[in-house]
Amino acid sequence: MRIYKTRSIAADACKNGRIKMNGVELKPSRVFHVGDVFTVRKGAITYTYRILQLCEHRLGAKLVPDYLRDETSPEQLELLQLARLAGQTGRDRGTGRPTKKDRREIESFISSDYDADLDEWDDEDDE
């Protein structure tokens, strides 16, 4: 139901105990029924979902709300919002490591200033 991108990732989540129903870890082969409520732990956030309908095939993203209802608690959603805000405190988007051209410009700038400082010291020694 599009909670995980692939079935293998969902199976790994089951095997690692990230998907539970009534506090019990689920196996990947678990059969769900209409009305079942299960929790999914992704990172520090625990999502809660209720099954409204069952389907036999893969769904489009727009149809998921007809089959699955998100009942995640407001406290968990607040943690998600705080995590998003914390992620924005870093550097601006698109700015990352310097490119090779940037590195060369930085090195030439630093080396020219460094050489100028050395020349000043040499002038003082001559006096």
For the biggest sheet, the summary is:
5 strands, antiparallel
What's the CATH architecture of the largest domain? Roll
Please name the CATH topology of the largest domain. Answer: Structural Genomics Hypothetical 15.5 Kd Protein In mrcA-pckA Intergenic Region, Chain A
Total number of beta strands: 5
CATH level-four homologous superfamily name of the largest domain = RNA-binding S4 domain
Ends: how far apart?
81 Å
Poorly predicted parts: none
Features:
single chain; 43% helix; Structural Genomics Hypothetical 15.5 Kd Protein In mrcA-pckA Intergenic Region, Chain A; 2 domains
Task: Describe this entry's structure for a reader.
The longest helix is centred in the C-terminal third of the chain and has 27 residues, at 100-126. The chain folds into two domains: 7-87, RNA-binding S4 domain (Structural Genomics Hypothetical 15.5 Kd Protein In mrcA-pckA Intergenic Region, Chain A, Roll); 96-127. It is built from four helices and five strands, in the order αββββαβαα. The model has no long low-confidence stretch (mean pLDDT 82). It has 127 residues and is α+β, with helices and mostly antiparallel strands. Helix content is 43%, strand content 17%. Strand 1 and strand 2 (24-25) form a beta hairpin. The protein starts with 6 loop residues before the first helix and ends with a helix. It is elongated.
